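A reminder from the course coordinator: this example appears on the midterm review sheet, so study it carefully.

Given structure:
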């Protein structure tokens, strides 16, 4: 399941893109809000206490490094990680910078997944709307279907690859707390940005507030 679920999330995102318009669908925006709340809650409830109890120095520094890294990656990706796509659909050039940004994000988020099934579920829920937005953009662009599928396949494999590296290379264990701290910074930036931008004019209506509360409660009781 560690390797299958992140791949399945990309497939589900692709299927959603076939039937919904991710940029304007109310249901999709609710899913995005839920994913942001759930991911943020799992990060706060599980990952933060774990890294601070590890006894390693400068955990906070690495959290901020992760946050700054995510800001840089979003400069390249134009905000796909939190529900936006601002790239030129008329261009026939393969979006290498977008692929690099999303791949780095996905690779790093795969490292801590073996330690928490709740975090795995949070990443999967987060990846579904990202994959839907990405698929909608790629298949309406001029890069061609083969390149679009290739892009999604590489993106889908990055999170399992991160988990595989963490499981099979002992050197990662020595630095796991620092890597996890960086991932916390990444998740904090992505999830809070989702929650801040999920509503028009940055205001919550009752439905979206309920969805956010549901995401928090589900993460707490799982």
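Designed residues:
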């Amino acid at each position: 399941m560690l390797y299958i679920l992140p791949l399945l999330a990309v497939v589900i995102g692709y299927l959603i893109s076939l039937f919904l318009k991710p940029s304007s669908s109310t249901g999709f925006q609710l899913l995005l809000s839920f994913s942001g709340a759930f991911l943020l809650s799992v990060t706060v409830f599980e990952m933060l206490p774990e890294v601070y109890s590890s006894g390693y120095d400068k955990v906070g520094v690495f959290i901020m490094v992760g946050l700054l890294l995510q800001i840089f990656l979003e400069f390249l990706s134009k905000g796909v990680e939190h529900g936006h796509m601002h790239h030129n659909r008329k261009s026939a050039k393969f979006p290498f910078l977008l692929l690099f940004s999303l791949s780095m994000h996905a690779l790093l988020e795969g490292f801590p997944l073996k330690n928490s099934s709740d975090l795995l579920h949070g990443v999967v829920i987060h990846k579904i709307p990202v994959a839907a937005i990405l698929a909608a953009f790629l298949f309406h662009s001029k890069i061609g279907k083969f390149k679009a599928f290739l892009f999604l396949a590489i993106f889908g494999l990055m999170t399992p690859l991160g988990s595989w590296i963490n499981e099979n290379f002992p050197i990662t264990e020595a630095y796991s707390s620092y890597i996890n701290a960086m991932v916390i910074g990444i998740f904090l930036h992505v999830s809070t940005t989702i929650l801040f931008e999920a509503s028009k004019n940055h205001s919550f209506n009752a439905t979206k507030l309920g969805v956010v509360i549901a995401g928090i409660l589900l993460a707490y009781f799982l």
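The first helix runs from residue 4 to 19. The two ends are 17 Å apart (CA to CA).
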